[in-house]
Amino acid sequence: MSETFNQSTNRIGLQPNRLFQCCAMATIAWLGTSQVYANDTQPQRLDSVVVSASGFEQDASQAPASVTVITRDTLERENITSIADALARIEGVNTRSLDARDGKTGNQTISLRGLPSRYTLVLIDGVKQNLSATVAPNSFGDSQSVFFPPVQAIERIEVIRGPMSTLYGSDAIGGVVNIITRNPGVDWERSVTVSTQQYQSSKFGSVQTVEGYAAGALNDMVGLQFYGRVLDRSASNVRIPGTTPSLTDNRTMGQNPTQSDVYTFGGRAVITPDAQNEITLRFDTTRQSLDNSIGQVGRLNGVTDTPASYTRGYSRELEFERDQFRIGHMGEYGIGLLETSLTHDKVVTKGRTINSGAVPDASRNGTHRTLELKTLVLDTRLINEFDDHLVTVGGQYARPKFEDGILPETLKREQYSVFVEDAWSATDDLTITGGLRYDKYEDISGEFTPRIYAVYTATDEWTVKGGIGRGFRAPLMEQSTSGVNGFGDGGSTPLFGNPNLNPERSTNVEFSVQYDNQDNFAAQATVFRNEIKDLIEGGTGANSGQDINVGRAVIQGLELSAAYRFLPEWTLKANYTYTDSELKSTQPRANLAQAVSSLAGDPFVSVPDHMLNAGVYWQTTPQLETFMTAEYRSSAFRPRNFHEPMNGGNSQGLAGPGHRDSNIVLGDFKGYTLLNLGARYAVNQNVTLNGTLTNLLNKDFIDYSTYDRFDGGTAQSNAYNNILPGRGLFVSMNVNF
């Protein structure tokens, strides 16, 4: 989906007409917006909460999928420093790390409907942010989640729960998150926002951000937009009781985030030479640096080896860079609305070094390890209406090129796709949407992904809808190669690819009922079932192995949400998610000395069975709004091969009848409840203040207990999957001028 086709502000110099309205409805059909629950202070009617690609309000209840929309008003109100913060209170969404060994940078990731974050497709104005190769190996993939435009630059965020590969291709098994930014308007507007997050305990590092935004018309034909964001995170100091940091094992895997800086800048020009054409030029750049001066995120080269043998693979600072450039065109012609774009994406990791034995040339040991992915993507699609059908046809060509200093050659892959989707108004009350996509990868067999979805408007208040669709996730480029494709265990143990891998495939079924009294109450209930096969499992640093298709899993659940304005100034919102997942088949354990992997019958991942979010919002005065929110998460399954993050991800080495089975010895992760209390005050029409007391009751997530190791020693492990900060204060000020 194009960036201009996703905006809520009318484009400069282009008047909307009927075709654009129809195309806007098609876009909503793709995005499938179901409601804006948990976003605005007052519950809105479901038929007027989504603004289409061309700036028209759409009947969101008619969309063929389960989607929540987060408005800019919500983002401005709450303590948002990342995309995960923005999505944390949506049904079906989990932003806490499912495996605390991941997320070494300390950035949060997004899990949809009980699936790991790698199954969530993230878009910014329809441009894919997921990568086709592991540019940040050894669990640094969360580094790619740092690009988050300033809140003032965002129009809304649309979250689609459930497979959407028919429209978006690979990676959309769990769903899609699309960050839609604003188009420049006619009048110039500028804003600056400063914020700080401070914690009562000195164990947790503070976070400061400065954001800037400016947009407006240069003349009748050209609109400009610029934005920037700087984030500084101080180092935390969370430690296992009784331990002392050392260069041999100082790694904390993101549970104790190191000092980090993030710089994000971007801009675009929107050119409308006439009423039928629009041209967009855009750039976005992001830089993140991580302090690794004493091995906080990876063991340093040569420091702990005698003599120095350069086996570890990390420098004293890690850097992650991303540059994206795009040119797009949208034109309205007799054949319909034609949209085309060309995107160049470059992602680089710096600060990794070559391990001993990784390459034949020993003189390269300890030198810089190149990690760079360049991707060129050409997108096009045509939308047209005839009779009772709104038809979209399109295609994509992509050419990623991945260079890794430990691989013998640069990896290249060509891939293309074609798709068609038809929204058919069968009757005045029934719309049936059907689609089919074909994806072909140079090194993988072709993949068909169909879907069909029906929406029935029973009355003005009741809507029933449901459908079935396929999803898939292609193997990463290095996973499909032969031989060594990486190193684990601090960068010292080889991992292997497999040229015979198949894509992971899923089939999703969902059914939903929506009620909206058109006044002050709206609710929705959705049941879903997602079956995934050909799950890809691979070796780890503790157990070197080859990537293989081995697993099959079923994830099913229930999503409930409601918003009720029980008094003119008071609104209550709540949502609940029940998730039940089960592995049907897994990779067997090779021998008794190997850590127990997942077993058939285990949950797929460590997602809480029950998640509840609630909030009460009080418009105290026209200038002041106060609110209290609550977050409940039940206990979650502890993986059998769990590695304690604060031990640098090392294997537990457990003793007892559950030899090396973490779940038997340590039990499940504990559940918890958090409360937050906040307020928003408009000083005047240009200045707004926000404040939130986070973790109001100062819940302590540092809860370590001692257990016996298999080798006769002892170690400690935390009762919670994630160490969340204690009580904190978030304060921000936004100034418009």
Shape: globular
Number of domains: 1
Give the total of beta strands.
36
Average residue-wise pLDDT: 82
Largest sheet: 22 strands, antiparallel, barrel
Q: How would you name the CATH homologous superfamily?
A: TonB-dependent receptor, beta-barrel domain
Number of continuous helical runs: 5
Name the helicity range: under 10%
Q: Find the CATH topology.
A: Maltoporin, Chain A
> How far is it from the N-terminal to the C-terminal residue, by CA?
32 Å
CATH C-level label = Mainly Beta
How is this structure best described in words?
- The chain has a single domain, classed as Beta Barrel (Maltoporin, Chain A).
- Strand 21 and strand 22 (444-457) form a beta hairpin.
- The longest helix has 14 residues, at 18-31.
- The protein has a 22-stranded antiparallel beta barrel. A five-stranded mixed beta sheet has the order 3-8-9-6-7.
- It is mainly beta.
- Mean pLDDT is 82; it is low at 1-58, 589-596 and 655-659.
- It is globular, with a radius of gyration of 25 Å.
- Helix content is 5%, strand content 48%.
- It has five helices and 36 strands.
- It is found in: Cell outer membrane.
- Belongs to the TonB-dependent receptor family.
- Keywords: Cell outer membrane, Ion transport, Membrane, Receptor, Signal, TonB box, Transmembrane, Transmembrane beta strand, Transport.
- It is a multi-pass membrane protein.
- This is TonB-dependent receptor.
